[in-house]
């Protein structure tokens, strides 16, 4: 029984590490390409808390969206490299559903991995 628990604990830890790797790598790429990640996180967190976009962020959403559109291919290239490193580092876990589910939960609630999609959606409605 203890070895099973350790295995589960290991999967949980590796999922957290893997998700953090992807999130950090994405943030670094956004920063490197001139995207205001502080404002991105502020907008994302506010939207998650309030359930709607505060009007004071309208200009920022448009600005960040324009920056992301201009730098899209550079950001995507960086993220592709990150994912390749991730696959190499975590290849033993990629068929583990628990690992993937836990990673997905973290990634889908991170302002740097999920925020750009939110910004695009919000910008399209402004």
Walk me through the structure.
This protein has helices at 2-32, 37-50, 58-89, 97-107, 115-124. It has 126 residues and is an all-alpha fold. It is globular, with a radius of gyration of 17 Å. The chain starts with a helix and ends with a helix. The relative contact order is 0.21.
Mean pLDDT: 93
Profile the largest sheet.
Answer: none
Alpha-beta content class: mainly alpha
CA-based shape: globular
Termini separation (Å)? 55 Å
**H/E element string?**
HHHHH
Number of strands: 0
Radius of gyration computed on alpha carbons: 17 Å
| Number of alpha- plus pi-helical segments | 5
Q: Kindly state the percentage of residues in helix.
A: over 70%
Instruction: Work out the strand percent.
Output: under 5%
Question: Topology, pairings included?
Answer:
Blueprint: H1 2-32, H2 37-50, H3 58-89, H4 97-107, H5 115-124
Helix pairs in contact: 1-3, 1-4, 2-5, 3-5
Search tags:
about 130 residues, 5 helices, mainly alpha, single chain, disordered N terminus
A few lines on this structure:
By secondary structure, the chain is mostly helical. It is 78% helix and 0% strand.
């Amino acid at each position: 029984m203890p070895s099973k628990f350790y295995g589960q604990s290991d999967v949980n830890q590796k999922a957290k590490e893997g998700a953090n790797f992807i999130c950090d790598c994405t943030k670094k790429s956004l920063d490197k390409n001139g995207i205001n990640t502080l404002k991105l996180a502020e907008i994302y967190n506010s939207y998650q808390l309030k359930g709607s976009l505060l009007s004071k962020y309208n200009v920022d959403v448009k600005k960040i969206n324009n920056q992301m559109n201009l730098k899209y291919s550079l950001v995507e290239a960086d993220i592709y490299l990150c994912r390749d490193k991730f696959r190499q580092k975590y290849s033993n876990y990629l068929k583990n559903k628990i690992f993937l589910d836990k990673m997905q939960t973290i990634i889908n609630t991170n302002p740097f991995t999920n925020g750009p999609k939110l910004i695009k959606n919000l910008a399209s409605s402004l």
